[in-house]
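#structure-requests
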Amino acid sequence: MPSTKHLFILLLVYLLFSCDSNQSTTTENISKEKTSTPTTMTPKPSIPAPKLDLTEANRLAKLPLTCMETEYPNKLGQVLSGAEDLKAPSILHPAFYGCFDWHSAVHGHWSLVRLLKEFPNLENAEAIKQKLAARISKENILQEVDYFKQPQNKSYERTYGWAWLLKLAEELHTWDTPFARELENNLQPLTNLIVDNYLEFLPKLYYPIRIGTHTNTGFGLTFAYDYAATVGHNALKDLITNRAKDFFLKDENGPLEWEPGGYDFLSPCLEEIDIMRRVLPKEEFADWLQKFLPQLSQSDFKLEPGIVSDRTDGHLVHLDGVNFSRAWCLYGIAQTLPEYAHLETVAHQHIHHSLPEIVDGHYEGGHWLASFAIYALGSQPS
């Protein structure tokens, strides 16, 4: 049996260990209390940022590369003035006839230019350049111009296709290679026509179009503004600035809770924000945003990604698009106003929700979603 002395020593060790344990527990509880206390510091994103690396670029490039050669199925969206207008898509639109419709063909070409520019070692880079050169030739572009000049086609692709054409022109303009200069020069007659169309149309648009599909005014203004700012076209830039203020400056309490609509691939509220952050000074934009969507300033702001129930349905798959377009708008806010950095997490969530799904073999989404994904991935704040 242990002696009294040994028992005393064991009891003393036990008491010391118990005190140390209680102190650790108390310290741990205090630490937890401090962590759970609300703070004004901007929380760090809890979802990893999606990456556009060479592997992802090669994966996404396959979509436009395939569909630019796919003439059918095709949605021409044309107005017929007579039987002579019934021609194959490749004859009517020798530059942009694949990818199901004209605007998707245009932004498919933009996707390939963007990826080549960012990743010179892209798979099949030389083959892609040859295809781009063959499509965006002087002859083909002049034929596209002739199509737009026909009286019944005055509003063709207004303004969604117009916006993507200018985004393609901007991408070529900022790619400093002889190849890009050649394509930019070939495209210039159509670029000039689209700019003229904007200059003629915008003064006549009395009300903005607030929907989540092609004719959304905010989106149509945003890409055109970027082009004008990049190439120094002050007349177009000033017109867009003034019209955006006319349309949206007085807006308050945007109905974000109504979104998304069943076929939306754009967010009416966020697209409006995307143009206003461009045309307003930073402080004025911050004040306007607080009135328009005050909930965005909350550090715990949440927004559920759009749910696609059937990716074989060409309209329902639009909701993958809304996830990408929401992301690029949210990234833009965070980049303009650092105090909104928490929105990056929401944007990450939207991209992660749809990015794995778009290379699924379904042409309904495959003919266009790569462009949305590439633009969203490239919009992350640096």
